[in-house]
Amino acid sequence: MKKEFLEAGKIICPHGVRGEVKVMPLCDSAELLAEFERLFMRVGREYVEIPVERSRVFKDRAIIKLKGTDSPEEAEKLRNSLLFMHRDDLILDEETYFIQDLVNLEVRDADTGFVYGKIADVLQTGANDVYVVQGEDREYLVPAIGQVVLSTDIDNELMLIRPLEGLFD
Question: How far is CA 46 from CA 41, 76, 83, 92, 93, in A?
Fold first, then answer.
């Protein structure tokens, strides 16, 4: 089941004297995080929208001014809070997925039907992502490349793969 709200960043600390916060991205990059015009915070079971007044990138972090946070004291109260994005605020290319949607997908051999396990994590290596698949008896590392991953069906929570010869030996 697709989550409506996805983790986007974690507030590390206040920044400056105008209520800005320094945010560690939990999405692809600080640059991506700084593009959002709105973010959300979870309050109980609800997600509350918070407009972003301004944002910029500083090193590998985003510096964000959230509406309603106007002093270092108010910003300090947000320390360690998670910020969420609404999935509709980011349009993905075809064959590109949110990591949170991939986690827990069942991974099955396209030819034999053998179930390797479920995706437990996604490693971002630079060249290509690698899916960490946790099986009953072992862990498999599956490269996210077209020669191996034949189909990804988020709605039915299923990924079909055809391992390259020797991949799991």
Answer: 8, 22, 13, 25, 29
Cβ within 8 Å of residue 48, ≥6 positions away: 40, 41, 42
Token pair for 85: 């994005």
| C-beta of residue 5 within 8 angstroms of C-beta of residue 87 | yes
Per the CB < 8 A criterion, the answer to whether 148 and 167 are in contact is yes
| Integer Cα distance of 111 and 50 in angstroms | 48
Q: Model confidence over 52-111: pLDDT tens digits?
A: 999 999 999 999 999 999 999 999 999 999 999 999 998 887 777 888 889 999 999 999
Residue 85's closest CA among 124, 125, 129, 28?
28
Closest by alpha carbon to 8, among 63, 76, 86? Answer: 86
Total-model pTM? 0.74
